[in-house]
Amino acid sequence: MNESVAASPERGVPGAQQGLLPSGRHRARLRRWRAFKDSAARYGIGTAGVGVVIALGLIFVYLFSEVLPLLTPADVKPLQRYELPVESGAQPVYLSMERYEELGVVFSDQGEVSFFETGSGKVRERIPLPIPEGVEVTAFSHAETGQNLAVYGLSDGRILVGRHTYGLTYPDDRRYIDPGIEYPLGKAPLELDPQGRSLKAVAIQEGNNGFAVAAITADQRLVFSLITTSTNLFTGETTTERDTYTLSAPPDRMRDVLVTEDHRAVYVIGDSGSLHYYDVTHPQQSLLRESRQVVPEGEEITATAFLVGTRSLITGGSDGSLDQWFLARGEDNVRRLVHARSFEDHEAAITTIAPEKSRKGFYAGDASGSLGIHYATSDRTLFLEPVADAPIKAIGVSPVYEALLVATEDGAVRFMGLRNPHPEYSLKALWGQVLYEGYEEPVYKWQSSSASNEFEPKFSLVPLTLGTLKAAFFAMLFAMPLGLMGAIYTAYFMHSSVRGFVKPTVEIMEAMPTVILGFLAGLWLAPFVENHLPAVFSILLLMPLAMILTGLGWSRLPDAIRRRVPAGLEMLVLVPVVILLGWVCVALSPVVELLFFGGNMRQWFTDIGINYDQRNALVVGMAMGFAVIPTIFSIAEDAVFNVPRHLTQGSLALGATAWQTVVGVVLPTASPGMFAAVMMGFGRAVGETMIVLMATGNTPVMDFSLFSGMRTLSANVAVEMPETAVGSTHYRILFLSALVLLVITFIVNTASEIIRQRLRQRYSNL
């Protein structure tokens, strides 16, 4: 009785022990200190959590702020209106503007060129072209926008070619633009039709080998001429050579003609609304390849123009329709006309079409005075509103897309401000199949840049998203079984002394820089896998089988032998088996390749229709799986190891084997943590950059094959962000791809947390 009283803290302690306990004042101080630490931890952890959420929100806000300008609509704002700077009675046939938007140029149907100030309409210089007396202008055309080249067709079958130029000087540190006209084929008109008949329509393009000119004569003959010039280095004299051909006429009456920049195709517009394509690759054997009806019967083609690069032809009809056409090679390797798309109709007949200088967009004016801004690749009509009260005759577009000149039939010119920063963007262009120039069918494709302005950017995010998921899938296919199985064995079966070495070693693997892993994967692993394909597949197939057979054989050995290996160290028996089997597979790889695959397994894949890239998803799966394994292993191992001991001991006490206990008790209890481990590994794989950058070939393809490469969203941002122009559409789409990547990981992590919580609630009562 005395002992129970002495042991009770309620009644105090014997005098000999009173000095060992803290005093009441000291205990109160300890309680206050503990309460302070509890409060500090509670508020500190809470503040840190809120800070993480705020940081994540700020990342979303920043990325969204960079992406938001993609949604900016096109707009046109009137700035000035003045009279057309041409002779009385003349009509404009072509308008243009230099890059500083200070000077405009107008070509008239009377053979006169006027340079004027865009802000006021004041004529800076007026140049009458050297057209002989008694000869009239009967046709006009201009070349691809960037060439600044124009041609007049004359009534005597000759042509006059001029190029408007803008010299730049800085007198008194002020910019001064000196306009002028050059004559690349000479000031004297050049004979085109040997018969000297009036030219009803004419077209010109300058290419790498000179000039190509096509014309329709008054007697409905189609003339095609290739013109080359050469300059004597000593005398400076320029000589002109030309080869002229007469092409067969199409079935209907010809109205207009166009020629491409590569001098390989001639298009003829018929009076009945038809489009005829001539292949003039070999002019002596030119062929009328195809004829297509562009507008409904009873309507006419009233305007045509090439987009930059002259690969796409835009046709405008008297019914207000606008269509895009280009050539694409079929399976028979013959180029044929493809109708790419139709744009939003205007309410009146199309009167003029003006293409942009370096983008696949164009501006269309109609007979009601409405202006339309259209973009081909994104299949968008960005603007369609009335801007004048009279039919629009010509449109001049600034090379930097910040201003417009619009000439109308009533003799007025309107100088307008233009805002059209991102016409390439549309949901269809980013996430849908697009019919690009030269393609027969719509495709998903990412190709953001090229060496020339004629290139059509391809901004589909689908190949990049597929590549991201593909890389993560094959990495998880490699890492998930090894990480989870290794975690289960290490936490539950492995000897504690070995576990104390294995777990830190695997976790240290996570500290290895991924750039080193990518470097090794690209320069060593990829060639090794390519040269030892039979060995790789043999190891993948035989290694699990060998482990199962070794375990089965071990279980059949007498107890006396098995007891020699301490419990938890049985895996040491597998070490020589794994090493020996790996060595045998590699050593016999050439023999297997020779016997079953004709000595070259890669070629065998090609023969059966499977393309094998050296840097492919198989290599990425191994390399990135190696980087992901530590994440999965560490979290899953902690989850399994921390399963309460009373659960496992109770299962064993009821007669369950160790394996039955793992399957029936340990895994359900640890499943929330193991699921979290898998999702963390998946998030790591989705966001990985350097390994996929160095070990995949970095080619955006729509192929989920194990033997092809890919490009991921993260690698694409890393590669292209340094070379893109700040504020461009390409720049903002890269930010959009980063936002897509963040959204993917956010959705995956949120879903995994919800599932983890439900699993935790489900198995919390075990």
From TrEMBL:
Coiled coil: none annotated. Residues 1-21 are annotated as: Disordered. SUPFAM superfamilies: MetI-like, Quinoprotein alcohol dehydrogenase-like. PROSITE patterns: ABC_TM1 (PS50928). The keyword Transmembrane helix applies. It is a multi-pass membrane protein. InterPro entries: MetI-like, MetI-like_sf, Quinoprotein_ADH-like_sf, WD40/YVTN_repeat-like_dom_sf. GO terms for cellular component: plasma membrane. Keywords: Membrane, Transmembrane, Transmembrane helix, Transport. GO terms for biological process: transmembrane transport. The keyword Secreted does not apply. Its main location: membrane. It comes from the Bacteria. The chain crosses the membrane at residues 40-64, 471-494, 506-526, 532-552, 572-597, 617-636, 657-682, 731-752. It is found in: Cell membrane. Belongs to the binding-protein-dependent transport system permease family. This is Phosphate transport system permease protein. It comes from Ectothiorhodospira mobilis.
